Predict the structure.
Amino acid sequence: MDKSFDPKAIEAKWYARWEASGAFAPSGSGEPYCILLPPPNVTGTLHMGHGFQHTLMDALIRYHRMRGNDTLWQLGDDHAGIATEMVVTRQLAAQGIARADLNRDQFIERVWQWKRESGDSIEQGIRRIGDSGDWSRAVFTMDPMPSRAVTEAFVRLYEQGLIYRGQKLVNWDPVLKTAISDLEVVSTEEDGFLWSIRYDVIDPRPGEPDHLVVATTRPETMLGDVAVAVHPDDERYTSLVANKRRLRLPLTGREIPVIADDYVDREFGTGAVKVTPAHDFNDYAIWQRHAPSGTFAHLPNNGLLNVFTPSARILHDPDGWVQEDRVSIKNLNYRGDSDTGADIAKTALEAVESALTESPILESIPNQYRGLDRYDARKTVLADLDAQGLLVESKPHKLMVPRGDRTQQVIEPYLTWQWFVKMDGFAKRGLELVESGAVKFVPENWTSTYRHWLSNIQDWCISRQLTWGHRIPAWYDAQGGVHVGRDEAEARALGGLGSEVALTQDHDVLETWFSSALWPFSTMGWPDETAMLERGYDKYLPSSVLVTGFDIIFFWVARMIMLTDHFSGRLPFREVYIHGLVRDKDGQKMSKSKGNVLDPLDLIDGISLDALLAKRTAGLMQPQMAKKIEAATRKEFPDGIPAFGADALRFTFAALAGPGRDIKFDLERCEGYKNFCNKLWNAARFVLMNIEPFSPRERGRGEGPGEAQWAGTNEPSSGATRHLLPEGEGKQPATEAERWILTRLHRTLAEVETQFAAYRFDLIAQALYEFTWNEFCDWFVELAKPALNGNDKGAAESTRRTLLVVLDALLHALHPLIPFVTEEIWHEVAPKLGPSTGLRTGIDGNELLITQAYPLASDFAIDAQAERDIEWLRALLSGVRRIRGEMDIPPGKQIPLLFAAGDASDRPRAQTFSASIAFLARVASQRWLEPAETEPASAIAVIGDMRVLIPLAGLIDLDAERARLKKEISRIESEKKKSEGKLGNANFVANAPAEVVEQERARLNGWSVQLDALRDQALRLATA
RNA sequence: GGGUGCUUAGCUCAGCGGUAGAGCACCGCCUUUACACGGCGAUGGUCGUAGGUUCGAUUCCUACAGCACCCACCA
């Protein structure tokens, strides 16, 4: 083995071998364990969030595979409707192709082309991270199988009356010209104005107000006002309401009523609110309350007066619309399937006209506003109001502005026809499944987030005015009749329509999350029974755990729970592990615009400063940020980023995965864990050197380690797990140190098992790190050195075996976190261990660590006595080393050691470990003082009852030791005092549990013994 | 406006009714034959503030402050 570990050299090799061996596929036996990969969007590249999430999932998958589960990691990717459509449109634009120049089929073909490239790059990234998912089963959401499930689900829901088409106010993105989800709208506080406008009362009566003043942040919408609302108990306005007074709507001259509604806050502004039901969600709600009583019956569309075109211009006549709003029309054009030319224009015009028919108020909109963009219209409206003396006040105002999270455009509430899923029944069931504990959130507190959202849910708008996605399986006849079916023929048949009736399929597609909601069973072949059988529907549904971020609890998790239950009667998964967001080292969200994005592949392979700068400053939305980003990047990474390798990156992610927290990604942690991999590598080198007959010191000395088989005393708890150390092979560990390390291994594995069950990846990493570095390397390997070189041949051979066995178990235990380096080392180690008892053999006949059995705690015996003994030895060696360090005794200098006092166990211990003490503390001689002997002036360490003395004899700086003693004495005095205080408190002794009191007494005793010893020496030093 | 989480060593974070921990950074010594991507040792914290419960609170409760995030219709 090389002297240090080089990740690059091994990663590609092992990934290819794992995959070729079939290790990623389910084994077909054992308890099923399944994780669904949250399918990455085909738009993206892999980011740190993926790296993090994938590391956690792969650790779980590898762990369970090694535990003998029939393990499936269902891979896939997501077509990501809006995001992909935007990316491809932008790309076309860069090639000088207007999206409008392509028809539907052509556009979709371009998306597929792009998907193939992008999908490849994501897949490549996933492989580099080491994901051991089953590629042969990977599914794309637009593939035939999941697409069929989408159609089937839609049709069934429609037949069950759970899907309907309706005209409602939705969040509308005027640039994308599609409805978007509430969840895709982000409200940000922005500076704006609050304008107060005077609406005059028609024919005012004496004693009543002759006008009202309403406040608005969006004056342009007043063209669609249908009323002014006041609070029913507001005495200023009761007579206006009671006497049915009407107001003159400025600029249009329309007459509108004054209505009373509880929604109005009397304290805000003048207590009067303009009501624009087609352009405001609150006003829409008011409209819903008042329309049934006929308040708006005289108005077109019962008062839902839409004044905007789809691109948020004020309505204008159809021809003008076609001319001025070319993009909008073209948008409709290319959505016309493979139609071309005249057909397209005709379809477009018809669409516009029908939109206007639904909101026929064009005549009430004065000419000067028609066709204006919403912000231009605002200016003009305000100027005109001002000129007429109707603008009462303009004052600066902070308001929440809704913006689309994709386009950053201001979102309009917009009246359109859309498809909806009725949510009340689903929500109820979704709540039940979580409240009953059938689905558990980890950490648990996410349950309340889920509950809160489902308790306040609206019907789910599932249609999008996009091209890329699953097309809605609904057809329209010339009369506007709607026919839903699995295909056109079925729709026709169900509607009883002859072949002479012309049908047009709905142009819209389903929002991406609709197909995502079906993922747990659509990936398992549903609804096709043959496919279901093939893909293990019965085995892998429910899946075991969903690993995902909190940001998609609503988008995805809740909907999977509801729809999976509805269609399969099963849970999608039993547990949901919610992890945090990966942020940069200052806690900032990583984003392209901030220029603080890290690419996991750059951490694996390293990247030069120049390449990193180029990456971070290319294609910025705000190019002026480039300078700032460059400066910050140069400062943080003056030499670029070194290659850490996939293992180090994975271990970092695991170690940072504390419960319910975002993680700040710190490169220094990553560096530390690369060192950890190197440490493991070198520990392996040490072990191998010492078991190889050809190692320089071993040459000629004879035999190798023999069969490394050891007797654990406990039965393994699972049949799937091999005995690392089969019983009856007869050989017992020869030394205390071996029994100790095997005990520590037992405890570490028990901890790992517990923490895997709790998804505490940070604690898994910590337990294994500590065992590897602080126990195996720092102590066992060091203790092994004198044993290997000593005269006791049995101890030497036994130690060799134990080194090998513990290393082997450790490689297994670490494999789920750091698969590459452990696999590589294992192939050096395994041949020394004798015949493998792995779970499976790869198809190429070569065994791999990835399919070996995970070691269980019970494979290794506990020896509590050995634990105590080694604890004693460690305390002794630490004590001596501390004196050495503080007294500046040169490390190479051999020193004499005297032991004094002590209890019955100390003498045999000192005897047992004398060689270790001599080697590890560089001790020339060890001797017990006879009871009659007086202690010489010495530096002292107290281990339990025993005193360890290093005689001064010219070795020790007297003043330094006096100072050290003084400090130590005062520290122990204060501890003793605290202890005495506690025990002096009658309440403590009376009320605290007996064992706590007992423990406190023991501590007090310990302090006293130490104090006595230290004081004795202090006295001697005073006179020395 | 409602909700959730966080506040522990210089930094990043574990922990938790009964002796305050880790990694990194910092300081000292050491090229000791696995590893300088290393070894040994040392320093460093009234556990956000104020109350309460308890024999005992960093831990449980209450209030407050600061930070972060989520949800929400105040024109």
